[in-house]
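Data availability excerpt. The first of two example chains:
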Amino acid sequence: MSKIIDDAKALKKELDNTPLIQEYMQIRDIFQKNEEILQLKKEIVRAKNENRIEDHNRLKKEYDNHPLVMNYLSLQEEVRALLKQICDIINI
């Protein structure tokens, strides 16, 4: 069992050193701390809770089209595809 744990740790270390994962982690941190994004999320929830459909749709569209959100979601999909590929190889 120790060999499996050691291999998993080595894989994680390798993944952490790939440019894709490094870029994703950097963008994720920026995304999670971005005041504009955080404020937009709050406004979207508030508009939905207050049943302001038009405001909610406008804010959601603004959020979805924000360059940082688009970049983050794109990188997230690339990371998911990489991890799925790794899972597929492991499960062979």
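And the second chain:
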Amino acid sequence: MKSVISLQYPLLALVLSLGLSAPGWSAERVNVRGIPADTPFIANTRCYLPFVCIRKGEETPGFEFGVYGRPKFAPGDVLLAGGGRLSGRVALFQKGNDWEFVRHAALVIPEGETDAFYVGPGDAVILRQQGKEAMDVYDSYGGLYLKRLISGPLRLSYNPVAGTSHSLSSFVSPVVLDDLQQRAAAETLLQQLKSGKSVRESMEVANLKQSVINAIGSIEITDKEYLVYNEATKETLAINGDNYSQKMGAVFAACPKADAGEVKGLLKSMKRIEAAVGYWNSVCL
């Protein structure tokens, strides 16, 4: 493929090999604030995240975006672990090669600001970024952020560690604040961030420590393929091909509004899990 690109599209090949911006792409650099002092560099680099680096002779890390193949800023918001919400432009990052539906950190440029602020593992409960067709939502799960397949009272995600055997924290339930409280928390947090503190330090100053979060226990991860989270009962179900009919059958058993014939068809195969969760959300509220 590389040789074909080089022969047919020599300019694009040069762009890809050098990491340059092609005609029509306007690269910008933004300063990145709030990276905790104990955050390690990626091995043999001066980068905290891919392309989030400290240049030689400088002290403040930065991120050059608008370059082909790099994370993009798009409208979105971050619900921090304490209730404050920062809205503006959000970029999502992976560290190393991981599942496409997993993210490890984010940068957010709040409305009216020019600097980006670092949001690391455990700093937020929800990351949201506008996608091509809809808003993409990522939930805090262990030390990462997991993309939802379906949102709603019953939400569905892929299991990022299927086939392994260890425990991860279950989904974190967002702190529920009204709009006024949320705005006040965000203003306090932003003031602390702009003074040079990290998100974690800012939450402590704002008296919004993560201890106020309702953590929902843990589950054993062992060859499980989907995670279904019930926002009402705050229960996480790990579902695989062997237990699909039983687990989802129990979910529908508590929903008298569901049509028995429809449910029977949905429970025949785990291939229908997305349809099953969508149907539950539409009739079982």
